[in-house]
Write a structure and sequence with these properties.
6-stranded parallel β-sheet, 11 helices, single chain, 356 residues
Length: 356
């Protein structure tokens, strides 16, 4: 084997595959195949080439690699606007998970749908993950399909020929309300998010379904709408407490709303009993509320990781027919939902419930 251990390191901006090929005694095509993991190169030769490349501080020239392999080494991550409908923590969590699951040498091109999507440069990305919230996002989906762009849509069910990975929001909401019913609550209110967001409608449907199955009827004003924010929950909870008969429990469409509601409840010293509150998403802040928040864990990281995995399979040439995948939620039981049933020491809850 050629001795190169003592060779002075060259600047990686000057080292080319031809330099490595000359030192290794092979063709530059062999070096290229070895660096790209081709099985056409023997393990012994590949190890030798990789060792030389490392010693020479060689890094891949992405522009040159892009020309050879006809890839851009970028993926687009497009999302609905952060304000006022979307909780910022949700989008940030998605972006972090996608970034952590980027394939080697890839970067992210991030764009908010509030920008002029007609000018989106589809030619600069190998594929796109769309974090979708509402039906108006379908316009961008149609643009991507028109440009024959590899696309994975997450967070909302879409009636389009794309790969769609989202969460069973209806069942998650139903589970939350069923917990309250099992614990003895009957006057259960709902603070929902904006009605133009599909997840808001799904969570409201889950709420209504649980009440219907239990034969519970509630006043129309027990359903309030709010922005997905602390302020939205605070304002809506004040409205609920102004009703002639106040609820004994509240299911909130996300954790920010729930914590805003808890603040109002904690401020009302004239309440004879505390009101149970359940959130949705299992955001980090749910651990620090007073009391700690019972919530439904939305598998945000799993959804984003799965989208990344599938998108890179598409980019690598794997043919995948359009499909929709629904991920399950999980009940996280904490202190904001104390037992209300008299003379009952235990309530049977689902086996997969986490008590934190």
């Amino acid at each position: 084997m050629t001795n190169f251990i003592n060779r002075p390191q060259e600047s990686n901006s000057l080292v080319t595959i031809k330099d490595i090929a000359k030192l290794a005694g092979v063709s530059h095509m062999t070096v290229s195949r070895a660096l790209n993991g081709s099985s056409a190169v023997t393990p012994q030769t590949r190890d030798k080439i990789l060792a030389i490349a490392k010693e020479m501080n060689y890094t891949v020239n992405i522009n040159a690699k892009s020309l050879v392999l006809r890839k851009k080494y970028s993926i687009g991550v497009v999302f609905s606007t952060l304000s006022p409908a979307t909780a910022p923590t949700f989008v940030i969590s998605c972006l972090k998970a996608i970034y952590q699951n980027l394939a080697q040498d890839y970067n992210m091109v991030i764009q908010d749908l509030e920008q002029n999507v007609d000018n989106f440069n589809f030619s600069r990305v190998d594929g796109i993950i769309l974090i979708s919230q509402q039906e108006s996002d379908d316009y961008f989906i149609d643009l991507a399909l028109k440009h024959h762009t590899k696309l994975v849509v997450i967070n909302r069910r879409v009636k389009k020929p794309v790969i769609n990975i989202t969460v069973d929001e209806i069942m998650g909401a139903k589970t939350a309300v069923e917990l309250l019913i099992k614990q003895g609550y009957q006057q259960i209110a709902h603070i929902n998010g904006p009605c133009n967001i599909q997840s808001s409608r799904d969570r409201h449907n889950g709420y209504r379904q649980a009440l219907y199955d239990a034969g519970i009827k509630t006043p129309r004003l027990y359903s309030q709408s709010a922005s997905f924010s602390l302020a939205g929950g605070y304002e809506a909870m004040n409205k609920l407490l102004a009703l002639p008969v106040i609820p004994d429990a509240v299911f909130c469409a996300n954790d920010e709303i729930a914590i805003g509601a808890l603040k109002v409840i904690n401020e009302q010293t004239n309440l004879t009993t505390k009101i149970a509150v359940v959130g949705f998403n299992n955001s980090e802040i749910s651990l620090y509320s007073n009391p700690t928040l019972t919530t439904i864990q939305k598998p945000i990281l799993q959804m984003a990781e799965r989208a990344s995995q599938v998108l890179f399979e598409l980019i690598e040439g794997k043919v995948i027919e359009p499909y929709t995948e629904l991920l399950a939620t999980q009940l996280i039981l904490r202190d904001s939902t104390p037992l209300k049933l008299p003379n009952v020491d235990e309530v049977i809850i689902p086996n997969d419930t986490l008590v934190i």
